[in-house]
Queue: 3 jobs
Job 1
Amino acid sequence: MELAVGSTNPVKSTAVERTLERYEPTVTAVAVDSGVSEQPRSIEETVRGAENRARRALAATDADFGVGLEGGVARLEGSPGLSLIMWGAVTDGDRTERGGGPTFRLPDTVAEQVADGSELGPVMDDLLGTEGVAESNGAAGALTAGLTDRTRALGQAVASSFGPFVTEYYDADD
């Protein structure tokens, strides 16, 4: 199975490889424009970024599927504060499926900076005294004390968006 991932971030390619390992995937990272802001700030914008990445990665390759992964932040009804959200999209060129990954409430000090316009990655780097947290354990790893990490969290978005292609419970027309 040939998969094109719409990002050159190695965490995203690894998330796809690990999550879909039973299908023995060949994963190609493709630099594409998400078509959304660097820090998506709603569920809608985050999903649109994942969809754009999936479609553009597929269009740039001869892969069987294009995969897009996007992290964003959003205020969720019924939940306090600002949350980190993760969405995935998978397309075979005819249909596109979407699925979410874990959601994490951001600490107030982080949420305030992001709400004021900062991007989450650099804010987390400052908090942790690191560089490139988005290409390692990510905010997910830091905010759960390692109970999960960015690769596993994004893997859940991959599984949720790829599931309809590999189970008989969905019609292609759903």
Job 2
Amino acid sequence: MNILYDDVANAVDWISSFGGLKQGGTTRLLYSVEWLAAQNALKQRMTEIGMHSYFDDVGNLYGRFEGSKYKDEVIMSGSHVDTVVNGGKLDGQLGIIAALLAMQYLKENYGQPLRTLELISMAEEEGSRFPYVFWGSKNVFAIANHHDVETIQDSEGIKFVDAMQTCGFKFNTQPARNNIKAFLEIHIEQGGVLEKEQKSIGVVTSIVGQRRYNIRLIGEANHAGTTPMGYRKDAVYAFSRICNESINKAIKVGDPLVLTFGHVEPKPNVVNVVPGEVLFTMDCRHTNKAQLVQFTEEIEADMLRIANELGLEIEINRWMDEDPIPMDNKLIKMLEQICKEEKLSYRVMHSGAGHDSQIFAPRVPTAMLFVPSIKGISHNPAEDTDTKDLVEGIKALTHALYKLAYQE
């Protein structure tokens, strides 16, 4: 299979130019000028290679090679076209470019597929401009509630609805897609496991479940010099105990559990006042729902105990509770077999980050491939993957699409 290095590298640089920043990196936010230019350029490129290309109501872009025998059975691949602010050149858009190159190769070398090959460039996944995620994939299945976005706006006060309409799109009027027989997404790992283990490909078994919290500790602000240690209701000290105990427990449990205290805001946050309040966040992830629930409930109980011991009040708000999402077992086995047959260096692994595949997987057979991230860096202008690993990943994707779309 002749997937050329230069073709891959040039395609990545091309798509990255839409929203490319002078200092490096890419910013391409939903319904921005840069976003619309990228989607229109992709549409033109799809048309040039013989695809039937079209937008849906909300701005998801599709390109199709119609099937000769089972045209109503769609084999789909792609990812999201939006980026984070000052992001890299691979997150999301690699899945689009890889599917485009793979489908072009198959059409040129094997002709019309038996089943329809369809590329999707999804409008949005990141939630970087507006406080809403998976707008693209949720609209594929008509599960996005327009009431959730009718009143939201970006940091500049531009309303979601106005931005959408300016780009020529509207709320979805179409029913859920029911003809997708398989969805494959290739993505950078966004972590360092594949690079450390010197593997070119990760075959993803599941996407982790997540529980996220906003937590408020309420003590008593007081003079730092005149308040004896035994009389204090120090919110930072309470937080430090919670953080220490929780992380030690997480370390003891071990992989694949991860626990993060990502934002900490003490008040009044000055040098000479005992802090009377701390706002902080907690993010916990695991591939097993029962173990995720058990661990977080234990941590919640620990937090209540520590606050009570120190005479503080605590408010615990769990605002995200997402179940782990397994990938399709048949597709996982197919990808493993391809890697073995083609002597591709791979490992089986889970995804610690969320992806569009988690919206697809409960509804259609879904699988994911990872390629390594250099130094594990993502959402950063330094985000990169060795081109040889990109080529290996696209090879695996191409073989998978061939098996699904060209074989009986």
Job 3
Amino acid sequence: MDILSAKLSAVKPSQTKAMTALAAELKAQGKSIITLSQGEPDFATPEHISQAAIAAIHAGHTKYTAVAGIPALREAVVEKFRRDNSLNFTPEQITVGCGAKQLLFNALVASLDEGDEVVFPTPCWVSYPEIIKLAGGVPIAVETRVDNGFIMQPSDLRAAITPRTKWLMLNSPSNPTGAVYSRENLEGVAAVLRDFPRVWVLADDIYEHLIYGDAEFCTMAEVAPDLASRTLTVNGTSKSCAMTGWRVGYAGGPLELIKAMNTVQGQSTSHTSSISQHAAVEALNGDQGFIKEFRDAFEKRRDLVVELVNEIPGLSCDTPNGAFYVFIGCQEIIGRKTPAGKTIKTDMDFAMYLMEEAGVAVVPGSGFLADGFIRISYASSEDDLKNACTAIGAAVSKLTRAQGAA
């Protein structure tokens, strides 16, 4: 269509959304599908948070708010950053958006000129390269490897930076791998960035509280305070508070950037829901005990999925340190034939085969710029996870090697 912009033509739809939508469509047709394609906790929003929203409605807090968010929420975010991350902001340095995703978009739209480059490690969240393109930038992927835990190496970052580089986007814990950047890892990244004062850091900390075992959460502005003046720290309530549908993200950073982000938001969505903002105040200021309950449940589910997946011949995965995803290598599956005689040529083929044969929705690794993998979200019940892994194993057992293959 002539009406569509050239910029949009380069942007791909989200594969996580696409696979989840397909699963919903098949369910509507009466097919049994276990959806493990979407990063959404299956827990209900904690009751005290929901009650705060109901109270806000009864109190009449249903009007427009400031674009950057209500004062009580920005003050709660200031306290959260101080309490959890040893970061010191003023309320004016805080902005609230319709989820962390909007804040990433606002930051890039506010700061990128055509052709500016944004560096990020892969595998990456499916939206990173597409948001960068929409903002007029050029996505620059830095490949990580299984053998180093999907952690970006400082030498690889250095090699990727050019005079056009404006941002490094860093998601830890990572979607889709669950990789967690240690203090030492971040110090190595910071050492590189000190040689490139023009490059800013976008720290995507949305999975901050979902850390397991001995892993420690750190964020760049905390580890390298000298980089705080060019770091935007983004977080939200979706994952750790089971508030995905409430759409509340928040960010803290240099005042000039925050003001620019508010300008972008003021000309797009304005503010996020007033009721959601009041709920988020309670999520940040109220009882935090639910976070440990969620984390303990996720860790148990993680261990279950890792064990079951590694029992399936042809699939393999390491134990992730954070988030709620398992990133599964399926390279050995590529080239095998389905019972219908179709060759599995790509991870997308494999994902579609699992949807059709096993009734399980997963996301192909290619959507995260990492061919030869699939991602499973373990933010579902143990029963669903057990049934899904059993069905995947049965579906894989039906695949046959091509004649002459090793």
